[in-house]
Amino acid sequence: MPSETFGIISPHPPIFLPSVGGAEAHDAQASLDGLHLAGRALAAWAPDSIVLISPHAPLAYDAFVVDTSARLEGSMAQFRDTTAYTWPGDPELANALLSALDYAGIDGASRDIDPRLKPGWLDHATIVPLFFVEPTQSVPLVVIALSYLPYESHRRLGTVVREVAESLGRRVAFVASGDMSHRLKPGASAGYSPRAHLLDEAIVDKVGSGRLSELADLEPELIEEGGECGLRSIIALGGFAGSDPVPTRVLAYEGPWGVGYLTALVGQGALDAAGTGTGGAGAEIRATPASGRKGGMPGHDESEIVGLARRSIETFVHTGSPAEPGILTGDEYPERAGAFVSLHRDGMLRGCIGTIGPAYDTLAEEVAHNAVEAAMRDPRFPALSPDELADLDVKVDVLHAPEACTLADLDPATHGVIVTSGWRRGLLLPDLEGVDDVQTQVAIAMQKAGIAPGEHCDLQRFRVDRYT
User: Topology of 2-274 in CATH?
Assistant: First the structure.
């Protein structure tokens, strides 16, 4: 069972739901992409049940409250979405978990002992992650509310969940719902702390390196300054995943509205199901064409990948629905990779959206999705209209895996750059008009990331296959 462990760390802001946030949700596109990838991995892994720990389910200070209901239902009505979200419960697993907690000397309680605990009700911190990772609403679900018991009790809770799953012979996926610091920016809803970003950096570091047991040792004062709501959830997932180092993959971290959002896969089963390594840092390095194959304006003999991007845009603009991406047949295309789609009209930028690493199962899906995002949801521009299609210039950049570098290693004509400082990250593609020297390239990338001039940041460089 441990080698098959499957866990997900998921943020839960209501704004992520299209029915709540609309286009504004795309300010957190990295998180949305990460959650969609986690959902595809979960579907491939095919769990028998899901156990989700939520910081916003009805809780008790001194016990873990477990919902034993046969049906769970909720809505986001407080956020203007009246959709009824329902999942089947798993009373057998929930009651076995309560018995095991009692045997282990850990206080637990069923939600049905008190109507104020709202048995069978789903909170937003449960609905939002499941909306992305289990959209079929068919996998049986057990919801556990975190408590104010010690961190070690939360880790033991996760261990008990794993042991119960093993005893029942169940493939159980564990979802840790929680947001990181709520105090990253001035004006954040929970106030601002200049040290808040240090908490998130520490959590991301320990998750990324698989040292989940060390989360319980973080400085209490730093935790208090961060004002998080997800640390206990992740600690419980650490107990479920087993001894360090735990196989992990951080899919996204960002904080566009002053709250940190971490999305990650935890456990070898999760990484295997996501196909980690395919198209990643260990993938074969491909040569970057000097200028790509020409074509990018309507009526030209377009390259296959540009034609795919254009078809995706035109279908969505005319119908409001995405096109089937199909497959890319050219031998030069990798199976999976990050990709940027750039749109221009009359020589002026009209939209550009992309992914640094692969978020979809195939490059064709990656390009089709990013093409529609660039056309319809780039926050800098209004959605593309049908009368703009006739003179739309489409370019596609397929990214090679990034590598750490110094300023001396950069050449803006051949290398793109990624700058990172804590949770802030900015990217600039190579060979852009007006970007003729390294200093300009890095300065623009830092500005996009919100990193001040002179502030320290880490550098990565990457090559692209550009199709223009």
Answer: Protocatechuate 4,5-dioxygenase; Chain B (3.40.830)
